From TrEMBL:
Reactions this protein catalyses: D-ribulose 1,5-bisphosphate + O2 = 2-phosphoglycolate + (2R)-3-phosphoglycerate + 2 H(+); 2 (2R)-3-phosphoglycerate + 2 H(+) = D-ribulose 1,5-bisphosphate + CO2 + H2O
Annotated family: Belongs to the RuBisCO large chain family. Type III subfamily.
Residues modified to N6-carboxylysine: K177
Keyword field contains Translocase: no
Enzyme nomenclature, EC number: 4.1.1.39
Subunit structure: Homodimer or homodecamer. In contrast to form I RuBisCO, the form III RuBisCO is composed solely of large subunits.
Annotated InterPro entries: RuBisCO, RuBisCO_III, RuBisCO_lsu_C, RuBisCO_lsu_C_sf, RuBisCO_lsu_fd_N, RuBisCO_lsu_N_sf
Keywords assigned: Carbon dioxide fixation, Lyase, Magnesium, Metal-binding, Oxidoreductase
SUPFAM superfamilies the record matches: RuBisCo, C-terminal domain, RuBisCO, large subunit, small (N-terminal) domain
Gene: rbcL
Protein's UniProt name: Ribulose bisphosphate carboxylase
Site, Transition state stabilizer: residue positions: K310
Any further remark recorded for this protein: Because the Archaea possessing a type III RuBisCO are all anaerobic, it is most likely that only the carboxylase activity of RuBisCO, and not the competitive oxygenase activity (by which RuBP reacts with O(2) to form one molecule of 3-phosphoglycerate and one molecule of 2-phosphoglycolate), is biologically relevant in these strains.
Amino acid sequence: MTGITYEDFIDLDYEPADDELVCDFRVTPASDMDMESAGSRVASESSNGTWAELQVEGSITDLSATCFDIQGDRIRVAYPDALFEHGNMPQVLSCIAGNILGMKAVERIRLLDCDWPEPLTSSFPGPQYGTSVRSELLDAADRPITATVPKPKVGLSTDQHVQVAYEAWTGGIDLLKDDENLTDQSFNRYEDRLYQSLERRDEAEEETGERKSYLVNVTGTGDQMLERVQMAADAGCEFVMVDVVTAGWAAVQQVRELTEEEGLAIHAHRAMHAAFDRVPDHGVSMRALAQVARLCGVDHIHTGTADLGKLENEDTAGINEWLASDLHGLKDVLPMASGGLHPGLVPELVDRIGTNIGIQAGGGVHGHPDGTHAGAKALRQSIDAAVAGIDIEEYADTHPELRTALDKWGTETPR
Ligand SMILES: O=C(O)[C@H](O)COP(=O)(O)O
Ligand SMILES: [Mg+2]
């Protein structure tokens, strides 16, 4: 029998193997702990140790994580590939972002970043389209794609919803998006909304000569979601939207399997992410959540507005860069900027995070003094100006809808 203690989970001379998952944590140890004691407990609890000294037959170190680096309040932990069930994101997260978040040995702990090794990464499908949605499913070429969400976010009847959709599409918007809390309520049934929206979409495509699509919110329980995805596919929709955090990664993985068969892209809304990432020294960073989403296979994900909108953001530019980076052959993900955007903010947004993005505005379209159609035109005009490098004020001289939007909102960030 061998006794296994915390000390078995720390080795500052250790060099991780290529197939190990390396996680970067920020740690505030409990008041009676130093970083080494805390780091060894993090590695232990997130792999195969516990608080008590264990007596085991033979060696179990094949599955043990190792805290191999401590720099100030940062630690790095290496996890052996055999610890993980390949292709099972809930299981992976139950290791690296499980009990350790509530462990008394740390006052605070945040999973900041992961370096995903090839074997584990390749066990996930990744996105089906990624940024290629711009040309494969839409006609956006190199400009940011545009989306809008009817407001009020819930309460519009199906007839009202599809009328708003039509006005937005014909005003220059590519994607009509359901809001995160609109699914299949009595005032606006999923099935009716889906079919009627796509009928109006076809009209808008004919009128504008541009491809348009609909981010229909399929979020629900497992079977419900799959039924809704199937319905969207059968109706000729190109996208589905999933509230990935509230629905959970198992549901996202199930949806991803079906979208592979049906050729649908997945738009990931991140409602509830802030429960994990808003407190800076605790939880799971948005960067790590975005990584998980990419592995699970979403094509778009909301990553914030680089501090320009109504919501708190964490490193939008850095996360977007990661989503575009090489990841053992997995496709990239198109980052969506959303939350409090309006036309006056677009040039600065593009300046901060570039054009390889989606720009989504709800209030910033439907709050236009002349209504949704004018609001959609103003948003598209602001994007066209930003992409062409034309000053937005100058562009507004010949684009009245943009002028009205600028007169109303200026370039202020809303709250
Ligand atoms: O789901 C979203 O992204 C939000 O509803 C955006 O709405 P807003 O543009 O009005 O902030
Ligand atoms: Mg919303």
